[in-house]
């Protein structure tokens, strides 16, 4: 199996493309369950979604985030709760915060997603080490939502958001690879030169490799990879 991928001239055009896909689905299916990522990659998509949201009704949309750090208060500016509130949720007039969901240590997130009917559309970024969610290399194909230890690479990558690398949490709660694979449709998005080596490696994979968690997506029936030219520069 091979991945379907599209190279856009820049991150903005890829993000506007993805935002239109999401907005069209919200229109067609008001009770949409959206799987969301944080980090740098989806920021322009969220901005484009806000720009497209004026005549859209988000009141029946449920969102399920991929992950959250362990040990950060939700009010902490680096928490993924804070990120989602300020980069998306508070700007969607009709969205109900009660319909936003995050994995925690004290409830069965996979069961919660299932009880809502499953994720219709999942957005993923990719780590420079190939992680999706915080499923670091070595994560098993059947992993569910759980507490995970972040690798040194991920902690170093995420340090850019913190005043000091020692403040970066070492653990997170993340949907597992199996959890992610249950989504109906998946968009994996990668922007920038730092992602070029892992994208080259991912697109060369023929089957799931434990050392490259995103390669599990080869086993999914409906995945599209959206790249800007920089992320595609080693192809
Ligand atoms: C974030 C997440 C991570 C990021 C990945 C890329 O919720 O699950 O897998 O998508 O680390 O991060 P950025 O987009 O900051 O390069």
Concise structural overview:
This protein is of the alpha/beta class and 235 residues long. Helix content is 27%, strand content 18%. The strands form 2 sheets. Strands 1-10-9-6-2-3-5 form a 7-stranded parallel sheet, with helices on one face.
Estimate percent helicity: 25-40%
H/I helix tally: 7
Radius of gyration: 17 Å
Beta-strand portion reads 15-25%
Q: Strands across the major sheet, in which order?
A: 1-10-9-6-2-3-5
Instruction: Kindly state the number of beta strands.
Output: 10
Low-pLDDT segments: none
- In N-to-C order, the SSE pattern is EHEHEEHEHEEHEHEHE
The span between the termini is 18 Å
Sketch the major β-sheet.
Answer: 7 strands, parallel
SS-based class: alpha/beta
State mean pLDDT (0 to 100 scale). Answer: 97
Shape: globular
Care to describe what's here?
By secondary structure, this protein is of the alpha/beta class. It contains seven helices and ten strands. The protein has a seven-stranded parallel beta sheet with strand order 1-10-9-6-2-3-5, with helices on one face. Strands 4-8-7 form a three-stranded antiparallel beta sheet, with no helix packed on it. α2 links the parallel β2 and β3 (62-65). The relative contact order is 0.19. The model has no long low-confidence stretch (mean pLDDT 97). Residues 37-41, 66-67, 125-127, 131-134 line the site of fructose -6-phosphate (F6R). Fructose -6-phosphate binds at residues 37-41, 66-67, 125-127, 131-134.
């Amino acid at each position: 199996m091979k991945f379907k991928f599209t190279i856009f001239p820049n991150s903005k055009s890829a993000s506007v493309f993805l935002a239109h896909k999401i907005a069209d689905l919200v229109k067609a299916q008001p009770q949409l369950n959206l799987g969301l990522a944080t980090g740098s990659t989806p920021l322009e998509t969220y901005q484009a979604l806000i720009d497209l949201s004026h005549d859209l009704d988000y009141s029946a949309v449920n969102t399920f985030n991929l992950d959250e750090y362990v040990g950060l208060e939700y009010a902490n500016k680096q928490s993924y709760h804070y990120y989602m509130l300020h980069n998306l949720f508070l700007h969607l007039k009709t969205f109900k915060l009660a319909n936003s969901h995050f994995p925690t240590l004290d409830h069965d997130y996979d069961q919660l997603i299932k009880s809502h009917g499953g994720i219709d559309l999942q957005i993923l970024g990719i780590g420079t080490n190939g992680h999706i969610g915080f499923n670091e290399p070595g994560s098993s194909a059947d992993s569910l939502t759980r507490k995970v230890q972040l690798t040194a690479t991920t902690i170093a990558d995420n340090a850019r958001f913190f005043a000091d690398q020692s403040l970066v949490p070492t653990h997170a709660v993340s949907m597992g690879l199996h959890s992610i694979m249950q989504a109906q449709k998946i968009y994996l998005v990668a922007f920038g030169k730092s992602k070029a080596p892992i994208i080259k490696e991912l697109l060369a994979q023929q089957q799931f490799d434990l050392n490259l968690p995103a390669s599990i997506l080869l086993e999914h029936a409906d995945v599209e990879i959206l790249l800007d030219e920089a992320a595609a520069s080693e192809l």
